[in-house]
Amino acid sequence: MNIIAIIPARGGSKGIKRKNLVPIKDKPLVAYSIQHALESKLINRVIVSSDDDEIIQVSRDYGAEVPFVRPAELAEDHILDLPVFEHALQFLKDTEGYEADVVVHLRPTTPYRKSEWIDEAIELFLKHPESDAVRSVSKPEKHPYRMFTLDKEGFLDPIMKHEHPEPFLLRRQDHPDVYHYNCVIDITRPSTIFEKKSMTGNRLFPYIMNPPDVVDIDTLEDLQFVRTLYQDKL
Q1: Which end of the chain is less crowded, N or C, counting CB atoms within 10 A of the terminal residue's CB?
Q2: Residues 120 and 158 grouped into a single domain
Q3: How much is the pTM?
Q4: How confident is the chain (234 residues) per 10-residue block, as mean pLDDT?
């Protein structure tokens, strides 16, 4: 099977300047996801999609292919994942005749990710041909039964009131299991991307992870957290 990992790593970022190149321990951030993909036993092609010359060179230095420069219009802040992946897969088809069977999306913001987790998620995906995609999830630190929005008059409005009239009053042990999408591993089908115009489709299967294993760098605080607590794991 053609199992491709695509790592989207644009040059711009708001929270942390040049985030994908920021050093952690002995490597730039993007290098960790490249390493994870190369160490997978099931992934047989690793691509980085970037608009940035320095990220492109670093990615090649660490063993990834960079067969194209991402168009500038696909590297702006508001661009979602779908058009980036459509572009990468269509480019490979048009220029090489290459068509993937499985697409693994590894965000470069996750420096702590074991290659065996990737392989487990791929195997889970292959065992469920009825699914459109697999995404890694974990239990949230705060349960949505105790979360609110504000109504038009400024009063607290429980977001889970459709499940229980007073969900915030339930005991913790009475809360149902819930999971949040943690951005560590995404796996999808090209047909989900091109035919359903979605990265997930509507039949999404979970790869469940332990919360302490979840790392996603979005802010300077996240970066410091990783440098402090995950230094020995990287």
Answers
A1: N
A2: no
A3: 0.92
A4: 97 88 94 98 98 97 98 93 98 98 97 97 97 97 96 96 95 94 97 97 97 93 90 84
